[in-house]
Amino acid sequence: MKSILNVFLVIILLSLCAACAKTPPPTPVAPPVVQQTDPVDDAIAFYNRGNYDEARAILVDEMRNNSQDPRVYYYLGNIYMIYKDCKSALPMYEQAVYLDPGYYEAKRKLDESKKICAPKKKPTKKSPPPKKPVVKKKFDGGAKALDPADF
Asked: pTM above the 0.85 mark?
C-alpha cells in the first residue's frame, strides 16, 4: 500500500511540474518612463527653497548655453540682488526684458534695482550765505558830511 501511495504521489508531482512547464514566460515589462525636466524649472525650485547657490549654478550653465528663456536672466538678477551685486543684476534684468518685453516682473525688478543701485550722491556741505557788506552809519572822513537839506 505504501508503494501505491508513493507511486501516486510521484504521478501528482510530475503532473504539477508538467503544468508549470506549460505556462508562457512572463512578458517583459517596459522600464518606467523618466520625464525630462527643464533645468530652468529645477533652478526655480532650488531658488524657491532658498538654495541660491545651486540655482545660480544651473542658471549660469543655461545662460552659457545661449538660453533664450527670459526666466534664466530674471532669476539670476534676483540672486545677484540677494547677494547685493548690483553690477551683475542690472544686465540680467535688462536681458530678461529684452527677450520678453511683456515680462512685467522683470520690468518691475529692473526699475526697482536701478533705484537701489543708483550711485548715491554724497551730501555736499552747504556753503554759508555770502556776507552782506557792513554799512557804517557814521562818517569817518576829514570833511563835513553833507546833509540833504543843504542842497
From this structure: no
